[in-house]
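Most newcomers find our protein records easier to grasp once they have seen one. A learned vocabulary of local backbone shapes supplies the integers on the structure line. An example says more than a description, so a record of this kind follows:
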Amino acid sequence: MFATVITISALLLAVFGMNLGFGLQATLLGVRAGLEAFALPMIGAIMALYYVGYIGGSLFGPSLINRIGHIRTFAALASIASAATLVHAIFVDPFTWMALRAITGFCLAGLIIVSESWLNQASNNTNRGSVLSTYMIVTLGATAISQFLLNAAPPEGTNLFILVSVLVSLSLVPLTVTNKQAPPLTPKKPMSMKRLFTISPAGVAGCFATGLVNGSFWGMGAVYAQKSGMLTQEISVFMAIVVLGGILTQWPLGKLSDRIDRRLVIIAIAFSIMGASIALSLAGNVAIELRLLAGGLFGMAAFPLYAISIAHVNDKVRASDFVPASSTLLVIYGIGAVMGPVSGSVAMAQYGPGGLFYYTAIVALLLGFFATHRLLTGKKVSRSDKEDFVSVPKTSQIAANMAAAVSEEKSADD
């Protein structure tokens, strides 16, 4: 038992360091690109390439891990990601940054698969649910804390890039010194998108909309804050508050969706995102305190949408299809996340900083209307057929495996 606790603690420490580094990097690149006066659509393309790389890493990472092993894969990908961070500072060029962001996305996807494989192997039937919950808190908590590191040095220089590189490199240590080997990965074939949409239109739409909204925020949120007049310290607080808002509502909204029709929760979330987006679009006309409040409300609504959408899909598929369905939903989210920064940046170029949130408001409105249509015309899932809510991170198929195992364990206990 003690050895298991030590192993899980080491893994979570590595995950914490990794998310500190990559969370800071995402915001830093947006701020630095703005300072370098990159065209807004160019910034959107840079950020979108990260998600292209991430999808590639999610698809091809397992075969790489099976070929050379977990530890060597993690060491290689972390080293490449650390080096890519430093190259950003050496070659401040939008096309170079596009390639580097794709490389970073690919590496991070592989690193997450390795980390989650070990977590899954180290956990057991008695603690897997708590391990998954802790993993979510560590991931989002590190991302929130990383935003404050933006104040550690001027974004115009190279020190913050060096700090990101150091954090990513240090995340190597806990995993490479472990003597616990995770088993080979056996990815299941994803379910076809057409079949999945036929089974759960509202759930698929929710996952896609999450990619469109969250991808645009992570890609262009810091640029929005900068263009709307926020100072570096205010940008870091704004980004952190959005993440913290998502942490606060993840479980309450999930548990509420266990008790009522999940489509009602999706509808409420969609219109809440729309309301918060409209408030944020008034960037030049409201005090910074009100923008921070609106940012918190935006995070409270936007971040839980993915997990609740997956839960709605899982209510409608067979238990044996949980993982294939979740794998497809992750790809659907990724496609939306690729489109999000590009669409958001074009809206900002056309309508100013607030254009980013004009765009997210429209996406949320369309999701709200579609989910309402499905509520009125689709079949309601009975309470007895519902799976208990499990918060599934937007990371890899391994997290879906863990969530499916937790769901099965809960069903067995009932």
In short: The radius of gyration is 20 Å. The domain at 2-413 is CATH 1.20.1250.20 (Growth Hormone; Chain: A;).
